[in-house]
Amino acid sequence: MDERSEQIDPAGTTASLQVFWDERLTSYDFGLEHPMNPVRVDLTMALARDLGVFDTPGVSLEEFEPADDALLRLVHDPAYIDAVRAERADPARGIGLADNPVFPGMHDASALVAGATVAAARAVWSGTTAHAANIAGGLHHAMRDAASGFCVYNDPAIAIAWLLEQGARKVAYVDVDVHHGDGVQAAFYDDPRVLTISLHETPRTLFPGTGLPQETGAGSALGTSVNVALPPGTDDRHWLRAFDAVVPPLLRAFAPEVLVTQQGCDSHELDPLAHLRLSVDGQRAAYQALHRLAHETAGGRWVLVGGGGYELVQVVPRAWTHLLAEASERPIAPETLTPQTWRDYVRERTGARAPERMSDLSGDGASVEVWTWASGYDPANPVDRAVLATRKAVFPEHGLDPMQ
């Protein structure tokens, strides 16, 4: 049954942001030596608390239930779910490999992540809140019958499938993780109701080896899978230009009822697993743009999840605290100092020295220039060439001119 009222006015909802959180979300833990250490989520929540994000009027921390098998089966094969629950190495299903080692309580922890993202989707769809977040989510590589790339259950895909089951006619998914959002793309590759847009480092240099512009969808869904494959070294200015060239026009043309975004922050120049060169400030500019687009194209209905990000102290907590603050409608000024209480906690938890400012740039009001596509195509620029390849592959399917 459709849980959503026919018309939702986000300004009239009872909260601007609901954050679905449970300390047990940090039990999604592949071990101390694994890049995806849950301390990054713990430090994010601590920084957001110390900066008062959760004290903002209209912001609340919410409880939720783990996803049951019926929810998981919206995306995952029952035999795969059983294999995860068994907690035994199963290389054919990606379980027990170096990226996805077996850990105690793997099924329960993974179902908890999925449950939080579905709860966020439910809150937005029902009109309880305009925006909803699961910062521990964003496990976008998991496939129907296999774990992949640190991801066991594909929580954003499950949440989107749930929205479709409730009667959503159009859902847009924008993935800004440095790695291609392959699992979500695969789940809806032939479904015209879902637009997936992924901006990522080219598969020629980075896992998972997919996400070329020619991957555009199948059958009646042709043009609804969108991939912007960026060259290594892409910085803030060029990344934001690529975003401007592709995401706003497609979201405006598609007109989704809900916008779901995966906010992996491993595009940062300090991330140890990839090769883009964004700053926290460039990522903050992307959050602002997505927030505006949620209001412009999806009636304000915005579901946001975390994702990748493996510089655990310097990058992830600041990036995602900016994300939560942006979604709360009260962004944090980049020149803001990180609280001493948080810096002490970082030292206690990790032994590392915490960053002192919420910006990577110098000066007050630090901001990144947004170099728009309207300035014209430069064939000598490899980022422009990547963007134009994407526009040529999908824009005509949406009635858009790739050269305009």
UniProtKB/TrEMBL annotation:
It comes from the Bacteria. Keywords: Acetoin catabolism. Pathway: Ketone degradation; acetoin degradation. Transmembrane segments: none annotated. GO terms for molecular function: histone deacetylase activity. It holds the Pfam family Hist_deacetyl. GO terms for biological process: acetoin catabolic process; epigenetic regulation of gene expression. This is Acetoin utilization protein AcuC. Residues 34-325 form the Histone deacetylase domain. It comes from Actinoallomurus bryophytorum. Belongs to the histone deacetylase family.
